[in-house]
Amino acid sequence: MPNGEPPHLIAQTEGYIQRLDPARVPNAANVVPEFMAKSGGFGVPASYSLVGIAWNTRVVRREPTAWEDLWRAEYRGQVGIPRASSNLGLAVLAIAAKVLGGTEDNLAPAFERLAALRPVVGRSPTQLMQLLEREEIGIAPIWNNDAAGAAARGQPIRFVQPAPGPVSLLSFMSQITGTRHPDLAQEWMNEILSPEYQQHAANAPYFFGPTVRGVAVPDAARAYTPSTPAEVARLQSVDWAKIAPVRGRILEQFDRTFGG
What we know:
Elements: E1 2-4, H1 5-14, H2 33-37, E2 44-56, E3 80-82, H3 87-99, H4 108-117, E4 120-122, H5 125-133, E5 139-143, H6 144-152, E6 157-160, E7 167-173, H7 182-192, H8 195-202, H9 229-233, H10 240-243, H11 247-258
Parallel strand pairs: 3-4
Antiparallel strand pairs: 1-7, 2-5, 2-6, 2-7
């Protein structure tokens, strides 16, 4: 079963995935320890995606370099944001709160400052990307994978990993409780952590961040994925244990604030 970080937490508490048996998944020993710790002992971190800033070069001339650049006066009226119904939207609220002095427990700075932008809201990450491609907006927080795909199609889209760092969201693979084929599930998880699979997933057209130590990021992915230890160290994370339980309340506040 594949799960992003928020549903992975729910899966643990509701008991429909199983704890990892490291002896049956030996490649788990090669996973970056910080990524493995986020699994909570359930399944394996298969890959990660990034939330950074993308912009349309036909609309925005000056390249952003930091999250706070979204509030540059020259971008006013050109900013799009994702609805909080998606993990992308929740991650944007969390990182905005942090760079503006808040936390996952205090998203008020993010709501206040984002509302001041009067942004265009994309109801899904896909719609937000379409708005950027159609030049209805000029700049927006976007998944690295989506920005890379648009650029590969010839769209004038560029992507930056903004200071203090892009937000990483892990994807886990886990054994489902009660499976009739635990050996196959464990073999599959082990193969996902092989250097061969990790390098394949890091390359075009996927651009997933490798979770295994020693896997080199291909040249084609370096604009979209951290490729050095220093870049990996800059990755920002979200404390989903604080966000996930109040997700519904956050979405209600988002829709009230931005006219859902």
